[in-house]
Amino acid sequence: MGKIxxxxxxxxxxxxxxxxxHLLEMQTARRNLRGEKIGYKxxxxxxxxxxxxxxxxxxxGQVTCSHFARYIMDYAKQKSIGHVFKKFLTRGKxxxxxxxxxxxxxxxxxxxxxxxxxxxxxxxxxxxxxxWQKRLVLYFK
Length: 141
Prior knowledge:
Blueprint: E1 8-11, H1 18-45, H2 50-58, H3 65-75, H4 81-89, H5 104-113, E2 117-120, H6 130-140
Antiparallel strand pairs: 1-2
Helix pairs in contact: 1-2, 2-3, 3-4
């Protein structure tokens, strides 16, 4: 499907299947690396200890952009999370780092190998024309 981020969910997967464990480990490593890059860029921009503080907001969970946004909102006294994303975390802004997800067909394959059903979520959310929405659904099918 190209460079568009598509959300899917795997229903009834067997969490003990090695290929699923491996894919999840790889995604965790990718997210951790992205978090390190975001933290570095924000610190370089003048927002101190961004990674450490985002980790505190994550409370032991996976650090996401939302955790960085919550920290920045509090630190920089911004009016909303949405404002923080627009000012700091979207393409072209100081803390932007593109996500590095697995390929759609890889995720679907692993879900199927794990005994699960892959479900395309919110297909109308992706700002696609009707033509591309149809292509997405057909590709996913």
